[in-house]
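Researcher: Next entry: Mediator of RNA polymerase II transcription subunit 28 (Schistosoma rodhaini).
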Amino acid sequence: MDPDAKVLSDLETQLDNIFMVLSSTGLHDSDISESQHGLNDKHMASLLDACRQMDSWFIKKRLALSTYCQEYALKEEIDALNAECIRKEKLAQELKGRIEDYSKSIQVIIDQVHSSCFG
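Model: Predicted structure:
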């Protein structure tokens, strides 16, 4: 089996196991025996191990992409920078509009003061 597929298969198996144990009858009672606790602990440990393997798999794939396919990392970074530029341009336009509104309001006030004082 492909190592990549094995990681996913192991995780699915451990999830199935833990759901089976949790949904089995008698485990919801308050008088759970020590053997059932041990069984749950064993399945939880296996599930955590499978989750760690999956996390490690993602990290390895991300490292491989950034190492061997640097254009993907660069494209991702360029896309993020472009999105940031677009966001800042929109913000600058909003600020420019506010400044124009404030300037018009100030000019109206100046005209009113000027006409009342000199008019």
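Model: Note for the record: The chain has two domains: 1-68, 70-119.
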